[in-house]
Recover the amino acids of this structure.
């Protein structure tokens, strides 16, 4: 599989949904496979909340492959021997695309909290500018899970002629109060941590020790990404072997899991980016700029595929089925498909249980 990584710089202003303007911006992206002569084999991947443009493959020295490596590659469901796959880091991110710790060209200082609030529509608009720069006018398909599914849905509504197929996994049409509440824990954890310094921390300040507030918020996130069933299966009530049961701070295996993943995460992800991205997630509502969801879905031209997971408590399968029903009411039932995967893993099943859904992705692409 051929992998390339690049950063495109844009000097043209990006007009944001809020009314603010980014005078210039960068978009970091990776590609996999080869583009055919008529550019008809493009698949766009939209990444989730803390993902990046590194969706597949492994670079020399890497300890981990890309976050969707089980799905993307030669001979896999998203077959890079057939398709040219592109994944861009979202606007507001911290992996090469312009975000709150990027340099503001007007002040030559990091934006920090002066970075404008962005929306899913802004992320998609920036990526559409990237595709135009690359002379990609159409995609065979766009695919995303969770926050990536929000981008895919937004693309289908706001750029209806771009993609022939849109595949949304573990998504929703509007972020629920349940999900917003988990994000609130993360937001308060970050902004109330003294080391956050009201956003005035130095770049890479938390590379060695992480930010406690971000780690605590991420713990809440991890709980929402799993389910009671998968946590019981993973950890049961097992205790850490080296900790005493009657030590006040002795830990169950579930507690150690949250510590390990969350503290490590806080060393590699920028807290300001996390704040801006969860704000964009909270704002998301596919009907917000329309009279109803039915009106917004009336713009969709692509074949739509909704893949939900039964044990997903963050974005409920009912929400995805409602999108299918809405399109059916518009006479698009024959071009819309909904499948609910039998899984009790939780929301993150779309990142883990490939064997349960890769067939559906492959079939949709064919």
């Amino acid at each position: 599989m051929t992998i390339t990584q690049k950063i495109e710089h844009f000097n043209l202003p990006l007009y944001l949904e809020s009314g603010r303007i980014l005078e210039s911006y960068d978009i970091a992206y990776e590609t996999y496979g080869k583009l055919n002569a008529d550019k008809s084999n493009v698949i766009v991947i939209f990444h989730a909340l803390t993902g990046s443009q590194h969706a597949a493959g492994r670079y020399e020295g890497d300890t981990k492959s890309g976050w969707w490596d089980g799905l993307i590659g030669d001979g896999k469901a998203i077959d890079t021997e057939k398709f040219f796959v592109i994944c861009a880091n979202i606007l507001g991110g911290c992996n090469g695309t312009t975000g709150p710790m990027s340099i503001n060209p007007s002040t030559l200082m990091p934006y920090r909290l002066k970075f404008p609030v962005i929306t899913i529509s802004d992320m998609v608009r920036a990526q559409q500018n990237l595709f135009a720069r690359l002379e990609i006018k159409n995609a065979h398909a766009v695919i995303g899970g969770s926050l990536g599914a929000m981008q895919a849905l937004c693309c289908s509504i706001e750029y209806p002629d771009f993609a022939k197929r849109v595949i949304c996994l573990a998504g929703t049409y509007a972020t629920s109060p349940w999900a917003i509440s988990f994000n609130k824990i993360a937001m308060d954890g970050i902004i109330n941590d003294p080391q956050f310094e009201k956003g005035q921390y130095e770049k890479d300040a938390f590379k060695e020790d992480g930010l406690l507030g971000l780690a605590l918020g991420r713990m809440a996130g991890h709980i929402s990404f799993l389910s009671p069933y998968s946590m019981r299966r993973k950890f049961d009530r097992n205790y850490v072997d080296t900790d005493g049961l009657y030590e006040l701070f002795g830990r169950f295996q579930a507690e150690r899991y949250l510590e390990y993943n969350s503290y490590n995460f806080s060393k590699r992800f920028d807290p300001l980016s996390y704040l801006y991205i969860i704000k964009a997630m909270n704002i998301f509502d596919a009907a917000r700029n329309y009279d109803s969801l039915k009106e917004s879905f009336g713009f969709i031209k692509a074949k739509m595929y909704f893949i939900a997971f039964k044990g997903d408590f963050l974005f409920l399968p009912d929400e995805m089925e409602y999108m299918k029903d809405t399109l059916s009411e518009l006479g698009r039932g024959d071009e819309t498909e909904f499948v609910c995967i039998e899984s009790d893993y939780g929301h993150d099943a779309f990142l883990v249980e490939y064997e349960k859904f890769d067939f559906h992705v492959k079939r949709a692409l064919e």
Summary: The chain has two domains: 3-174+285-365, 179-279.
